[in-house]
């Protein structure tokens, strides 16, 4: 893969295209961008018909070893790789270690192993097993095995050091069996600046195609610290290799991290929103429209969309016959109303997940498209204000409601 | 006050009359065109013209209880060729309630389904699901499972809810008694169902857009059935359902009541056998003269990983399929079989709900395809041959054919080889 940057804004935010992806090297992915989050190759709740109601989905599909590890035998017998096994005909395949939407139990990582949790429980992976798995999956690129168990507040400096050392050792072992598949090195270091810098410097010395930034996931630290650490890390990394940030998906955090120089994100956030029965509705439209501005300033109308998401189980939506988001072109908004979604959620119907996942995925990817456009036109600040204002108003309203 | 529902498709051009008529004879918005009749059995092929579109019979109607077919979008359902599906008066009457659905332009508007809908009366759920308080001449009193309040479901109330839902076919409220019950209660229920039918007909505010079907009762008693048939067929209703079967009764009794019923139902009106959906039952009951069927089985069993196939069913979640790289049915053209293997679906059940949706789609496709094949064979005058092939595929050997099916088919001149 090659990263072609078309712009670097204010010395950090990057805009460009990641090219040369896939078997034939013909596929590409615009950055900043996100990967398509899946459970075992399936976007949660969606079959191919419902998935393909959306156009412009990311060309790279993410699968995780936490879903796949228990099926190693099957994949080995199948022989032709995960993409074919799952019926994913036309996608680039990226394999990560953990599912970003699930927090793993800690305390099981050793010098030689990391653990993943599948449907049958914990599975311990050595590098050898990890590489055997990659051989059976046959991804286009994967993240090297890593120890990222540093996100808890109580993590000692010694432990953080170990995670950096182990991760480098795992990477070196993975690289011994390179065989034509691209590997991302993983930058660790917890919340300790020196360790972050050390990890970045060392990883950058290896022949990796790009970098995963681990241990910075939502909930592990303040955004200000995250920004600081990412900026420091990125200084050590070659400009022409992509940086993928793991475990961060909230719109405000994404914005801040792009400003710090991150290129790629995982798109698990729409799934989390879906699972709590909510619909993304924050605005990322910065085209000038005086009428819309006025609408947004109407504090009295409690049904106005001015937050990252709305909770459709709320009784106020019972007889709200508008689409989830006015003007949204997704299948859900073109065909259904909030009242119907409310009913589906109240009655625990499976279709709620399907429709919400379609909308949330669509909305989220629209956000990334808007991000790229804003960067291209030097309007990132404007976009930031738009998106963050919605988030602030939601906090304000929550405080008012008590 | 019922909303006027604009459907757009084939409606009778009679004027909209919103007044409350007590007449027993009403205009309807249903036309049955008999396309072919099997010269050997009692099977027929019809085109049932309903307000939203034509329905080709024999037809299997999937059940979308709460205004949705579990996990499937209306587009997916339409793409499978479904022309009519069910909604449930009891469930929808509770949540979200008839007033909200009326505001949403009826159940069609609420779920955005552009084809036909059939709603049942709520009668069966009352008996099977809830704490039954009391059945009186007035109606059925029961306790709401959501707030414990006592509710009376009367014929008038049931029809009122169904009018709000705006379904193309509505079912009368019948006095439902389990098919395993015997004695005077069965007769009482049969007679009451007739009286309730008359009340339902009188209560229907939309006879020009909504077709009210009668439900023949009488349990497993031939005399009671015949009495019910004699009375109900005197009423001017657009169609008849055969009720009170598909419970826990013996199949030997079941088929005899079905064939007795079709013998005494008018030829030119559709016959709807309620609650029947297993493949063998469908084929046999088509031979016995039924046109329409519904059942939760295919969609419910899908969520447990059971895929329906011409040779029975396939439990995708079982270990033996973990490394089976074929599709569920190599001959099936449904979206699931065209793209995914048993092995992938087996594994997916451990990771995501979409696995259920894949099987649901397949099972609906299976049921609709079965009906399509049955229909085609009748049109081409080879239904008896179809039955032979079907049974051979479904059962490993002749001595495994269910005896009730053998008897039932023999009664309509098909001797299974």
TrEMBL record, chain A:
Domain of life of the source: Eukaryota
InterPro entries in UniProt: QTRTD1, Queuine_tRNA-ribosyltrfase, TGT-like_sf, tRNA_ribo_trans-like
Record GO terms (molecular function): metal ion binding; tRNA-guanosine(34) queuine transglycosylase activity
Protein task: Non-catalytic subunit of the queuine tRNA-ribosyltransferase (TGT) that catalyzes the base-exchange of a guanine (G) residue with queuine (Q) at position 34 (anticodon wobble position) in tRNAs with GU(N) anticodons (tRNA-Asp, -Asn, -His and -Tyr), resulting in the hypermodified nucleoside queuosine (7-(((4,5-cis-dihydroxy-2-cyclopenten-1-yl)amino)methyl)-7-deazaguanosine).
Residues reported in the UniProt entry to bind Zn(2+): 328, 330, 333, 359
Name listed for the protein in its UniProt record: Queuine tRNA-ribosyltransferase accessory subunit 2
Subunit structure: Heterodimer of a catalytic subunit QTRT1 and an accessory subunit QTRT2.
GO biological process: tRNA modification
Species of origin: Stegastes partitus
Cofactor: Zn(2+)
Pfam families (alphabetical): TGT
Entry membrane topology: Peripheral membrane protein
Cited SUPFAM superfamilies: tRNA-guanine transglycosylase
Name of the gene this protein is made from: QTRT2
Cofactor: binding comment: Binds 1 zinc ion per subunit.
Native organism taxonomy: Eukaryota, Metazoa, Chordata, Craniata, Vertebrata
Compartment(s) of residence: Cytoplasm; Mitochondrion outer membrane
Primary location class: cytoplasm
GO cellular component: mitochondrial outer membrane
The tRNA-guanine(15) transglycosylase-like domain, residue ranges: 13-389
Family: Belongs to the queuine tRNA-ribosyltransferase family. QTRT2 subfamily.
Record key words, sorted: Cytoplasm, Membrane, Metal-binding, Mitochondrion, Mitochondrion outer membrane, tRNA processing, Zinc
TrEMBL record, chain B:
This protein's GO CC annotations: cytosol; mitochondrial outer membrane
Domain called tRNA-guanine(15) transglycosylase-like: residue spans: 41-394
One Pfam entry name: TGT
Keyword set, alphabetical order: Cytoplasm, Glycosyltransferase, Membrane, Metal-binding, Mitochondrion, Mitochondrion outer membrane, Transferase, tRNA processing, Zinc
Uppermost EC category: transferase
Enzyme Commission designation: 2.4.2.64
PANTHER family: QUEUINE TRNA-RIBOSYLTRANSFERASE CATALYTIC SUBUNIT 1
Name of the featured protein: Queuine tRNA-ribosyltransferase catalytic subunit 1
UniProt organism field: Stegastes partitus
Species classification: Eukaryota, Metazoa, Chordata, Craniata, Vertebrata
Gene: qtrt1
